[in-house]
User: What shape does this take?
Amino acid sequence: MPKPPAPDSRLNLKPADWLAWFDGSCKPNPGDCQIACILQGPDGQRITHTQAAGHGDSSDAEYQALILCLQLAQRHVAPSQSLRIHGDSQVVIDDVLARYGKTSALLAHYRERCLQLLSALANTQTACDLQWIPRHKNIEADQLMRAQS
Assistant: This one.
């Protein structure tokens, strides 16, 4: 199994070449999932993507949104560039980073996929970190996702 990325310190973070935001939700919970991702490149280029993501709960939706974000990053972030991914799901970010020394067995298949994608990015010398942000700072990804639901 690939190693998780180093925990973000939230202190002394260097500027990243690319920034990304992800969000996912379901209605009702559990219910139909909708996910969204925004990538912003060093030249201001913005790539957005939304899609339906089947049936699940809010953690399913958030994890699928992160996976979408990582897949888009693989296509658009050049080798040796850096990427900072922002999400408002503390559960998902803590689970990927294995904070507190444990992960969710129910979310293990999502975590494994995220770790594979992070490892693939690392193999291209792409530095990637995950950062939790409060929901009110994830407005663009949230609005993008809700506009499609």
Q: What stands out?
A: The beta strands are 18-27, 31-40, 46-56, 82-87, 127-132. The mean pLDDT is 90. Helices lie at 58-76, 90-97, 108-123, 139-148. Residues 39 and 45 are 8 Å apart (CA to CA).
